[in-house]
UniProtKB/TrEMBL annotation:
Pfam family, one: TPS
SMART domains per the UniProt record, alphabetical: Haemagg_act
Gene this protein is translated from: hpmA
Entry-linked Gene3D superfamilies: Single-stranded right-handed beta-helix, Pectin lyase-like
Filamentous haemagglutinin FhaB/tRNA nuclease CdiA-like TPS domain location: 2-77
Protein name per UniProt: Filamentous hemagglutinin outer membrane protein
Amino acid sequence: MAGWVQGNPNLARGEAKVILNEVNSANPSRLKGYVEVAGKKADVVIANPSGIQCDGCGVINAGRTTLTTGKAEVENGELKGYRVQGGKVSVGQKGMDTSKADYTDIIADKAEIKGGVWGNKVKVTTGKNKVDRTNDSVVYVGDKNTNETDRTLESTNDQAQVYSVDVGQLGGMYAEKIHLVDNG
């Protein structure tokens, strides 16, 4: 909690409805605290194609919270959706608290949940997909660089299964409604 936050003079015509935090880095984003929307509720999007690591992160005063490894698709200043080609969103043992947000979306090629995820309506969408902003429309786009018909890895003795959603021993999701979509 930051206490009093000075208003943004660039928002004189009204508050933001969507706050897009687009990260362009070769490294994953590391979230280890809370993001708070000062003023009216707004959707909070954190997008980093290189991945997102949340360990004790959360969001306060958001209508929708989205962590995605997708590239944000913006048309005429409006966020339309995300195109996911890779990357992993991982939730560490300290968990993720979005219980004060109406909706929580994790949209990535892979998701790893090792701690609790607390929210109202939680939706996890994995795979190489094109996803609309509200995570209602998901279209599989595949990977142009690999053979998508082979979904296993060769190992010396056996085949190891490829996963898209991995919920570890201490991980879990706690919500009024949980929806999983896996195209990975």
